[in-house]
Amino acid sequence: MYRISVDAGGTFTDVVVVDPQGEFHVGKALTDYDRAVGGVAKAIEDVASRLGTDTSGLLGNTELFIYGTTHATNAVVTRRVGKTALLVTEGFPDTLLFREAGKASVSERVYPDPYIPRRHTFEIPERINAEGGIECALDEDAVRRTLEVLMKRGFEAVAVSLLWSVANGDHELRIEQLLNEHLPGVPYTLSHRLLPILREYRRTSSTAMDASLKPLMQGFLQDLKTDIAGLGFNGELLVSTSLGGCMEIDKAIDAPVYLLRSGPSMAPVAARTYSELEGLGGNAMVCDTGGTTFDVGLVREGELVR
Questions:
Q1: 187: exposed, middle or buried (C-beta count within 10 Å: 0-12, 13-18, 19+)?
Q2: Fewer CB within 10 Å, N or C, the chain?
Q3: Pair 23, 32: CB distance under 8 Å
Q4: Does pLDDT of 97 surpass 90?
């Protein structure tokens, strides 16, 4: 059985095929940005022809397929993401603007501009306290009025990040039901489900990014899954993530934010492995010059620098 790893960049799609004897074979093709399988199939065909088979024959004998892409990262960098609304607790519309203000440890940190503009942020009357108790019940009529506005203004995705939803997610879950009822088919992300942490800014910004990527990435990844199955692949399909590892494609479809910066996360892992194999020590720097971004990764004393 073969193993295949794919790196789909903004310009080229590169494929590494490991044959049953452990030999490496490399293929290359132009990236198809509309449908991932276009560039993938051509790059695999490049390898398959040298192995005396075709694309379907190679994929049909492949047990593991790992797909890495800059599609999500480039979409965020170039702002080719879906028009996204952010729903927050009434009285807290500026979470993305205030960031983590007041903390001495982050006072010198440079933050990006708010990912969701203020005019796309909507306050929802509700309040849950830090212990998970309901201080103010969710105003469902206000939510319905807000969703009507979102529909009229053509929003393509919704991020929901309510205060202390990590202690009690009931209000976010009820908003989910109302979204399914009033905006069927519009993707959304609930903060307590995606990233149940206490840091409000980090949870909200991650939720906003995830929701904004769903109109682009969910169909893109689902098409990849369907298309390579149609070419004969029935093995394990994984995608590389921002954690420097891999996850099942269905989980990536549910939370595409984990695909952001997967290349810069994987590159130091490769650099550390290469440095160890070549006896070059535990310090390394790896650079990746792509068509859209330039990324740098560091390894210090054998540890990945984040």
A1: buried
A2: C
A3: no
A4: no
